């Protein structure tokens, strides 16, 4: 990439994620963090977007892995993105349990 800033990095991550390439999206996020580029002014929003995109693509395992590796406490937006994807893909029991627990605590 000739121009490397948070906008081009985010475009690449979104491109990977919406095309079902969750591993590549997560690898790109790791590259951003290694390059010391702030992925967004609101990092939790960036993670929520990643969880949402991976979940929509049906990559629930990867979406949960993103949540578990977040450097901050996931909020209701992040957990809601996972639960929404679990509902769509009819897999609430396996992946949604931790999200439901978050909302009840």
UniProtKB/TrEMBL annotation:
Keywords: Repeat. It comes from the Eukaryota. The keyword Transport does not apply. InterPro entries: PPR_At4g14850-like_plant, PPR_rpt, TPR-like_helical_dom_sf. PPR repeats lie at residues 5-39. PANTHER family: PENTATRICOPEPTIDE REPEAT-CONTAINING PROTEIN (PTHR47926). It comes from Rhododendron griersonianum. GO terms for molecular function: RNA binding. This is Pentatricopeptide repeat-containing protein. GO terms for biological process: RNA modification.
